[in-house]
Amino acid sequence: MVRLPWVVGVSGASGTPYAQAVLCGLLDAGEPVDLIVSRAARLTLLDEVGRTIRDAHWSDDVAAWLGRDVSEVRYWSAGDLAAGPSSGSYPVRGMVVVPASTAAVAGIALGLSKDLLQRAADVNLKERRPVVVVPRETPLSRGHLVHLLALHDAGAVVLPASPGFYAGTSTVQELVDFVAGKVLDSLGVDHTLFTRWRGELGAARSLGEHAGIGRVGSAPAD
């Protein structure tokens, strides 16, 4: 059978935990992944979680970052413009850029293809495959909004890293997982990363309290 992965591009914006949660969610669902980490993202990973990804040791580095087996991950160097995902004939299901820096957003919107991440996103857009872009920047300038609108008009899903609080969240990880879950929803990938709205006010909070989970900034319920 032909391997049909999701391409995950990690750019240099703050928010590498979102990338980690999306990657783990895809792997938990049995989905193979092609991973591209930009040069700037390596610095952000080092700053935010004390890890980085080295091309020559990517398997060990990605496994340490994700805390799991990475046998279903294929890594491509961001500088390798001859890599598989640079061509529309390379079979993939679609792509996620998470987090998406404003520089990556602009490069994709303008078709600059300055590195493999931008080129792969451009390829998936032109092939009309699912593309989800997760910007993590605030506030947004007019230029940022123009580029995001261009991506929307090109067929991408623009999914800001804006966690919801109705799912009974009590930890930072749950807020991260909420965004990752919305990404997987956009891809049509099953997950259990957050409690879904059921049409009942306070239902998710009640579930958390019954499980002994306190609110953000409070002690756990007795």
Automatic annotation (TrEMBL):
Key words of the record: Flavoprotein, FMN, Prenyltransferase, Transferase
Transmembrane residue ranges: none
Chain positions recorded as FMN binding sites: G12, A13, S14, S38, R136
Keyword Nucleotide-binding carried by entry: no
SUPFAM superfamilies found in the cross-reference section: Homo-oligomeric flavin-containing Cys decarboxylases, HFCD
Enzyme Commission number, as recorded: 2.5.1.129
Entry binding sites for dimethylallyl phosphate: Y166, K182
Function: Flavin prenyltransferase that catalyzes the synthesis of the prenylated FMN cofactor (prenyl-FMN) for 4-hydroxy-3-polyprenylbenzoic acid decarboxylase UbiD. The prenyltransferase is metal-independent and links a dimethylallyl moiety from dimethylallyl monophosphate (DMAP) to the flavin N5 and C6 atoms of FMN.
Protein name per the record: Flavin prenyltransferase UbiX
Organism: Cryptosporangium minutisporangium
